Amino acid sequence: MPYTEPEAPHERFCPDPPIVVSGLVNRFGDFTVHDGLDLEVRRGEIIGVVGGSGTGKSVLMRSIIGLQRPTAGDIDVLGRRITDTDLDQRVGVRRRWGVLFQGGALFSTLTVGENVEVPLKEFYPEISPKLRREIARYKVLLSGLPEEAVLKYPNELSGGMKKRAGLARALALDPELLFLDEPTAGLDPIGAAAFDRQTRDLKETLGLTVFLITHDLDTLYEICDRVAVLADKKVIAVGTIPELLETRHPWIDEYFNGPRGRSALAARRA
Asked: Which SUPFAM superfamilies does the entry mention (predicted)?
C-alpha cells in the first residue's frame, strides 16, 4: 500500500466512541488489578488516566492495545472487539494507533530514523527504503526534533529528545489513536510544558484521540479534556477536573486538593 499524507481531521474514520472498555478484569495469580472496570473514550479528546501506584494504569493501556490479555471483559477499539478478534484483524487495527511507552522504548542499536522506520517495515514492507527514510525524516520533524536527530543513536539523546523520538515512531503510521504512557516523567518543567503543547497541537492538527497516562497535574490542567480516575480496581470517576473536584472520594480529594494540586490550580489561574 503506498504511503499517503495524513488526512484532514474531519476526513478521518474513527468511531464514536473509539475505545469502549466493559467489565474488564485483570488478574495476576491471586492479585486482582481490575475488577469490572468500565471506560469510554470520546473521539477527538485527550483523556488523562490517573491513579495511585498499583491501580493498573499501564495494565489498562496494555489491555486496550492487545499486549495484555484480560481475564474477563470486552474491549472495543475503532469498532473492533480486541478481546476476541483473530490475529489478522488485530493487525489491521494496530495500524491505526501509535504508542509512546514510558522512557521511549527505543532500540539502542538503531538510529532515531531507523527506529521510526520499524513500524513502516512491519506493516508496509512494500514501501521502498528511500520513501521510508523520507517518511521517518518527516515524522522526526513533526515530533519537534531537529533534522540532524535522524542520524543520532538513543545514547546520544537527552531524556526529552528520547521522548520525542518515541513520539515520532508512534506517529509513523498516521494513527487515529495515540497512547502516551507518562510522556513528561523525568522532564524538567520547561521540557514537560513543551511536550504538552506538542501533544495538544498534534491532536488538533491530525485529529487524534489521545489516551494519556500521567501523574503530572500541570499536564492534566493544561491539555486534558477529561480525566479518568482509577481506584478500588475500577474507574471510579471520569470527567473534567471541575467535575472531579465535586466528587467525594478520598483519593480524588487528596490528589487534586493536596499541596501539588493547589499549586497546579494556582499556576493555571495566574
From this structure: P-loop containing nucleoside triphosphate hydrolases (SSF52540)
